[in-house]
Amino acid sequence: MRILITNDDGINAPGLEVLTAIAEAVAGPDGEVWTVAPAFEQSGVGHCISYTHPMMIARMGPRRYAAEGSPADCVLAGLYDVLQGGRPDLVLSGVNRGNNAAENALYSGTVGGALEAALQGLPAIALSQFLGPETDDLDDPFEAARVHGEAVVRALLARAPWDGGDYRIFYNVNFPPVAARNVKGMKAAAQGYRTDTFFGVEPHVSPSGRKFLWITGGPQHLPTAPGTDVAANLDGYISVTPMRADLTAHDALARLDEALGGTAATDKAAGSTAAGDAPE
């Protein structure tokens, strides 16, 4: 098996070393693991791509590259430069230092890397390690991901739904903030929402008198609704969330169509205009 890995914490991040070990175990002794990761940390960049400026890419070692771009850039660089159009069997992104559950998934460069792979028609999984008081006391805060990551990836490859649609499924995995021995198992979970937890800004004035703004986050250990990712994580479970890049609010389409007059009215107006009648 050929696996392409990336992350958003950067080429030297400890979570990438954890992901490398997971990928090598899944790929097997005859497989290949290729790394294309950001040269510098790219946390919070989401699915951005460096559309208006070029990025430098450098070979750091055998099958290991650093690119001055986002995780989505790194996936593109891996597919069309490093692998010269060769298709990996799987793309893994992570292991992120910190959770990418609930609303964090929308900002996450880790999820953005997996999303780009899915848009390229490839199976993809984003993996993140939720942190908390229990992981702070561990020698290895990535212990849960390190011990259970291979089993999660193998389970998804063997048993999870994978489709070939235009906006194909990819998976967002979050390991709970507990020691590996305390992980209770895996749970399929919807993306949650932390009520009253928002990103904001905090102003600071530099010694030169210039004003700077730091982005601030909200509490990470507020539970989300039952059956969603953060709730599962805080209960000691690995959350697995199926995702798509399609941003359409499908539940609102019928109501919107009715509010706008329905397709019949739209089709009638279009036919009248096409026939030469001036619209009122």
Automatic annotation (TrEMBL):
Keywords: Cytoplasm, Hydrolase, Metal-binding, Nucleotide-binding. Its main location: cytoplasm. A divalent metal cation binds at D8, D9, S43, N96. It catalyses: a ribonucleoside 5'-phosphate + H2O = a ribonucleoside + phosphate. PANTHER family: 5'-NUCLEOTIDASE SURE (PTHR30457), PHOSPHATASE, PUTATIVE (AFU_ORTHOLOGUE AFUA_4G01070)-RELATED (PTHR30457:SF0). Coiled coil: none annotated. Nucleotidase that shows phosphatase activity on nucleoside 5'-monophosphates. Binds 1 divalent metal cation per subunit. Belongs to the SurE nucleotidase family. The gene is surE. Its EC number is 3.1.3.5. GO terms for cellular component: cytoplasm. InterPro entries: SurE, SurE-like_Pase/nucleotidase, SurE-like_sf. Residues 3-194 form the Survival protein SurE-like phosphatase/nucleotidase domain. Signal peptide: none annotated. This is 5'-nucleotidase SurE. The keyword Cytoplasm applies. It comes from Phaeovulum vinaykumarii. GO terms for molecular function: 5'-nucleotidase activity; metal ion binding; nucleotide binding. Its cofactor is a divalent metal cation. It is found in: Cytoplasm.
